[in-house]
Write a structure and sequence with these properties.
Order of helices and strands: HHEEHEHEHEHEEH
Radius of gyration: 19 Å
């Protein structure tokens, strides 16, 4: 075989390795889409600010968290920009064989919450961003019990200052009507989900990490308020409106200065 052909093949293999997407990974992504996307088609989507997500290159999507189905919304959002989204997700999900199959093969990033190992997930996310990937993080660290934005964990501040990737805030509203903490899931056709993508948040490498976390969370809150404002559905019939919140109540809570968990 000619040396030029060998070198070309080596370059292609090196590019695949650097991007983290092998042919096997692409097949698993395709399989995942075949499972998730029919569910996405059942939802009535409203997306504002989609073009604020770069079509290529590193980007960190930072979103509020109100539902077990929020990752589905972010996958749908990323797909509108032809981006594969890598999530920072709680490590417990890797304990289920079905979930682990997809999480491992699509390069998702486990977060060992409330432990010293949590810092390793930030390193993995920073490497993914350095490789030009799209990463999603939920700065609050868990689903909000009352659907209102919570204070950000300072891990988002660490990652933002260290990576220097574009930080794009996202507000999601409506996924909680399908599945959320403390309520029986109610999957059904036609439920609206609104997503608002905000302007990138400018974070410098020298910024205080807690100030950075607060500024990012404030931008997320503004997106949540707008997502509530443009939400197209209201309670009807016997619906008691448990899921409704006013845009004005989406206000940022400051990160605790003494808190050092990611």
């Amino acid at each position: 075989m000619a040396p030029g052909v060998v070198a070309s093949r080596r370059r292609r293999r090196s590019a695949v390795s650097a991007s983290g997407h092998s042919g096997s990974s692409d097949r698993v992504w395709a399989l995942g889409r075949s499972i998730v996307y029919p569910l996405c088609r059942m939802v009535r989507w409203t997306i504002t600010g989609l073009d604020r997500i770069p079509a290529d290159g590193p980007v960190l999507l930072a979103s509020n968290h109100i539902s077990f189905l929020d990752p589905m919304a972010m996958l749908w959002l990323g797909d509108r920009r032809r981006r594969k989204v890598r999530f920072m997700a709680k490590a417990e999900l890797w304990n289920t064989r079905f979930c682990r199959f997809f999480l491992v093969r699509t390069g998702q990033i486990p977060v060992s919450r409330h432990s010293a190992a949590a810092g390793g997930s930030l390193d993995a996310a920073a490497k993914a961003l350095a490789a030009g990937e799209c990463v999603c993080i939920y700065p609050e660290g868990t689903i909000s019990d009352d659907l209102e934005p919570m204070a950000a964990k300072i891990g988002i501040g660490r990652l933002a200052t260290a990576s220097q990737a574009p930080i794009v805030p996202v507000g999601v509203w409506g996924t909680h009507r399908l599945s959320t903490k403390g309520r029986k899931p109610r999957p059904r056709v036609g439920v609206a989900v609104s997503i608002v993508v905000g302007e990138p948040v400018d974070i410098a490498a020298t910024d205080d990490i807690i100030d950075a976390a607060d500024r990012i969370m404030a931008a997320i809150c503004a997106c949540v308020a707008e997502a509530r404002r443009v939400y197209p559905q209201q309670p009807r019939g016997r619906d008691d409106g448990w899921w409704v919140r006013a845009p004005e109540t989406a206000v940022p809570q400051p990160a605790a200065r003494h808190h050092r968990a990611s």
